[in-house]
Design brief:
Length: 329
């Protein structure tokens, strides 16, 4: 057993100012507020519109706020992990760019790609550096500028996604707070249902890629929906079973904000009262790697030291999982 747990000792998030409401979308594609609300639970999303701005700019704002809130000097940070599927560029990594923009001169970093499960995978990865005793301050970021890969003529996907960034500080804890256990899974069978085909080494950007709209995110919603409910419930059950926990032992469930119907299905299937399930999809839509830290930020005032939280996510890959976390402050 490790001497240290990795506790979250601070949380911050950033959402761009501009919004895209259901009424705005009604003017862009053949859709309506009733369809979007009943199928997804989303009313509006925030979109990064300033020219030249990218994922790292949102993440840098979240990290600056995190350092301020936790009274941490930029030079103290040793490692930055950025979960994203919308990096500023394929290289250098966005984590590096964020460190540069914030002035974290002593930090090295890297990006982690696991789509909507990105923050969960990055949190577990960051925790290992703390648990090993080699690192004292690790920042884990979930950030995505989904508007850069969404086709705003495709009504099946453009109503779902928004832009945001969230960040947490991980520090050693010897009193049992922090990341306790994680179940993380992946299955490449899901690759065909949720992907972005263009822009990588398989289909480098070309006229063919653009003519076939391969630079945009593609999703076949129904199989993803079914796999998401199944993946999140089985991962939550596995992490609870192996830690001898029942629903009454869990103070908060923090689900990836993909769709309100998925969130409610997971809560009901696991017998969690819906009022103990964090939800903010109505305001932001699906912000991919940012949904979990954004939820934690929005509910921060309601969290108490020692609360048991289960974080769960599902995303492209397929990737999915659940993490048991004891809140540290
Ligand atoms: N407005 C009006 N009608 C629409 C819209 C829209 N915006 N979008 C689709 N429709 C129509 C379809 O054309 C279809 O019409 P038809 O029956 O005449 O063919 C009908 O509505 C039903 O379409 P479905 O795609 O079957 O709708 P569904 O109920 O499955 O909802 C949704 C779609 C919201 C995408 C849902 O499937 C979903 O949430 N899936 C999971 C998303 C998810 O969890 N993703 C994982 C994370 S994302 C990541 O990792 C990057």
């Amino acid at each position: 057993m490790s001497r240290f747990n990795a506790a979250i000792t601070g949380i911050a998030a950033y959402v761009p100012e501009a919004t895209l409401t259901n009424a705005d979308l009604e003017k862009m594609v053949d859709t309506n507020d009733e369809w979007i609300t009943s199928r997804t639970g989303i009313k509006k999303r925030h979109i990064l519109k300033e020219k030249g701005k990218a994922t790292s700019d949102m993440a840098a704002e979240a990290v600056k706020e995190l350092l301020r809130k936790t009274n941490t000097h930029a030079d103290e940070v040793e490692l930055v992990i950025c979960a994203t599927v919308t990096p500023d560029m394929s290289f250098p990594d966005t984590a590096n760019t964020i460190s540069y923009k914030v002035g974290m001169k002593n930090a090295y970093g890297f990006d982690l790609s696991a789509a909507c499960s990105g923050f969960l995978f990055a949190l577990t990865t960051g925790a290992k550096f703390i648990e090993s005793g080699t690192h004292k301050k690790v920042i884990v970021i979930g950030a995505d500028m989904m508007s850069s890969i969404v086709d705003y003529t495709d009504r099946t996907t453009c109503v779902i996604f928004g832009d945001a960034a969230g960040a947490v500080l991980l520090e050693p804890d010897t009193d049992g707070h922090g990341v306790i256990d994680s179940v993380l899974k992946a299955d490449g069978v899901g690759g065909k249902y949720l992907n972005r085909k263009g822009g990588g080494s398989k289909n480098p950007i070309s006229q063919y890629v653009i003519d076939n709209k391969m630079q945009y995110l593609y999703q076949d919603g129904r199989p993803v929906f079914k796999a998401a409910v199944n993946g999140m419930t089985t991962a939550v059950k596995e992490v609870m079973d192996r830690n001898d926990l029942s629903p009454e032992d869990i103070n908060w469930v923090v689900p990836h904000q993909a769709n309100m119907r998925i969130i409610n299905a997971v809560a009901d299937f696991m017998d969690f009262p819906r009022e103990r399930v964090m939800k903010n999809i109505e305001k932001y839509g699906n912000t991919t790697a940012a949904t979990l830290p954004l939820c934690l930020r929005d509910y921060e005032d309601q969290l108490k030291k020692g609360d048991n939280l289960i974080l769960t996510a599902f995303g492209g890959g397929f990737t999915w999982g659940a993490t048991l976390l004891k809140w540290g402050y």
